[in-house]
């Protein structure tokens, strides 16, 4: 099982611009800025989908989506602009995991291996355009869809708006 993950904006930059005033009117601007951590390896996602509800809940609360998207980035590497958000998600996850019951069923997901992989991961120089294989997983089936990802400049991985 590989524990690499990437950070993705839920809403594109174009959509954020288009609906910013409407979101402000309803007080939901934070929804436009939502980002999720997504595993690249479907095996990691499937392990979590089979784990105890409390384990799944802690990953979702920390900012993970329970699906997989392979960006094509080499194992052990991540997009450099995502570093601040990765660190925030990992810090949040560490705090939440500490409160889990000792008898939680992890279904083969190894938290020690996950944190070791996250701590040793390094930024990549990145690709101008990537072709990715997206795997949408549910507890009962996995379905693969090949997608062409937009240029990385279209993704938001941190930046001034996320600085804390």
Helix content: 25-40%
Strand order of the largest sheet: 1-2-3-6-7
Number of domain units = 1
Could you tell me the strand content as a percent range? 15-25%
Give the CA-based shape: globular
Distance between the termini: 32 Å
Which spans of ≥5 residues are poorly predicted at pLDDT below 50?
Answer: 128-164
Query: What is the overall number of helices?
Result: 6
Query: What can be said about the biggest beta sheet?
Result: 5 strands, mixed
Please tag this protein with its features:
disordered C terminus, single chain, 7 strands, two-stranded parallel ribbon, five-stranded mixed β-sheet, 164 residues, alpha/beta
Describe the overall structure.
The structure is a single chain. This protein has 164 residues and is α/β, with parallel strands linked by helices. The chain has one domain. It contains six helices and seven strands. The protein has helices at residues 13-26, 29-32, 42-49, 53-62, 83-97, 111-120, and strands at residues 5-9, 35-39, 64-70, 77-78, 122-123, 131-137, 142-148. It has a five-stranded mixed beta sheet. It has a two-stranded parallel ribbon with strand order 4-5. A hairpin with a 4-residue loop joins β6 and β7 (142-148). α4 packs antiparallel against α5. It starts with a strand and ends in a 16-residue tail after the last strand.
């Amino acid at each position: 099982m590989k524990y690499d993950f990437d950070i993705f904006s839920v809403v594109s930059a174009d959509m954020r611009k288009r609906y910013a005033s409407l979101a402000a009117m309803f007080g939901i601007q934070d929804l436009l800025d939502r980002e999720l951590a997504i595993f690249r390896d479907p095996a990691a996602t499937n392990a979590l989908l089979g784990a105890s509800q409390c384990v799944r809940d802690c990953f979702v609360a920390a900012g993970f989506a329970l699906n997989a998207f392979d960006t094509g980035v080499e194992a052990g590497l991540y997009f450099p602009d995502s570093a601040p958000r990765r660190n925030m998600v990992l810090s949040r996850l560490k705090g939440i995991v500490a409160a889990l019951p000792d008898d939680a069923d992890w279904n083969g997901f190894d938290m020690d291996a996950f944190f070791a992989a996250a701590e040793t991961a390094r930024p990549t120089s990145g690709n101008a355009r990537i072709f990715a294989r997206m795997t949408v997983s549910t507890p009962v089936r996995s379905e693969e869809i090949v997608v062409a990802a937009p240029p990385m400049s279209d993704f938001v991985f941190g930046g001034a708006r996320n600085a804390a």
